[in-house]
Amino acid sequence: MKTKTMLITAFLSLTIGSLMAQTDTAKTYNYNLEQCIEYAYGHQTALLNAALDQKIADAKVKETIGIGLPQISGTADFKDFLKVPTSLLPGEFFNQPGTYIPVKFGVKYNSSLGASINQLLFDGSYIVGLQASKTYKELSQRAYNRSKIETNVAVTKAFYMVLVNNKQIDLLNANIAQLKDQLDQTQALFDNGFAEKIDADRLKVLYNNLTTEKENVLRSLELGKSMLKFQMGMPVDDNLSLKGSIEGVKLDKNSILADSTAYANRVEYALSQTQLKLNQLDLKRYKSQFLPSLSAFGNGSYQYQNNNFSDLYDKSFPTVVVGLQLNVPIFSGLQKINRVKQAEFTVLKSKNDLYNTKNSLNLDIKNSITTYTNSINSLENQQRNLDLANDVLRVSKIKYEQGVGSSIEVTQAQTSLKEAENNYINALYNALISKVDTERATGKIN
């Protein structure tokens, strides 16, 4: 029994300690939209990887530059001829014509120390490679910008979703509060014999439905916050509260006007331009392979030879050589010509892709502006419907209290108000999302 108690105590200690550790590691943040975006820029995984791609591209440029710098290497060797090489010399050298005399050339121990240097003087492919590596770095920068834009859009949409949920909860709280008052009044009238039980039951059904809907929205709100934290690259166990409200977001369909040059602000168009530039440099590189290349070289070494190992390094025999090497391509089986043709076709494809990208972006801009305009009109209409629904409910309650209306009218007005609130929330969310999509389409998010 004592052992069992000790085990339970130890388990509880470990569990409580683990929970406390989790609580200690969780951080708390209170951010507005701009702060959420800035946090995402420093923590979102896709953006961090895009930044690493930039560093890779920078290292690639330096690697390419290094090809044109002096290439220096050193060598050292040691040889022990267990059997010294033997050659046969004609016997005439030794007054023994018609025979061959075996003669050993060399000594038992050989060693050498040397260094060589090579310097590229001219190579068309290298010059083009330098230009291409810098363009590749430019491509990685634009890819990073695209990741920033995508992160900005994702965080903004998630942020707005949380604000919409907060607005929905505010509407539900107001609706529940006034419905609770109406339910209490009707119940009191029923208790005093001035109303029927069905009147109170109808209102109670509506009250229960609204309470359940609020609980669902509260759970959706927590899920929305978790989604926002995920888009920001924040640990989902951290605590995040938001500053700001829907009322602070400006929704104006006249603030975004069609611009025939807006496509040029899109990072997708810049990426297509850079890809075309890379393919054109690739074509230039293949053409440059028909040019000769020139390089300079130098070699120096010390040779050591002796039959006694202890005396091997007593005397050295130096050798130094410098020179130039010219390589002139003559014929390569038509391989280079066909590589050039392939590169030319690739450039033509890139030009077609650039045109298609421009056309696609213009369509996206027009579509987003139209959608945004429609969503604002829908939101304004749903706002009017919501105001009318509130007014209808107010009049229905007055008529019911004065005995000239029925409880069914009040119930129907409550149901209409709930439907109007849901339609308003949906229209509000659609307007916010289309606002973000339009700002992205017109290049305002960068």
Automatic annotation (TrEMBL):
Signal peptide bounds: 1-21
UniProt-recorded name of the protein: TolC family protein
Family under the similarity heading: Belongs to the outer membrane factor (OMF) (TC 1.B.17) family.
Predominant cellular place of this UniProt entry's protein: membrane
Subcellular location: Cell outer membrane
A Pfam family recorded for this sequence: OEP
Matching InterPro entries: OMP_efflux, TolC-like
Coiled coil (UniProt feature): none
Keyword Repressor on entry: no
Keywords: Cell outer membrane, Membrane, Signal, Transmembrane, Transmembrane beta strand, Transport
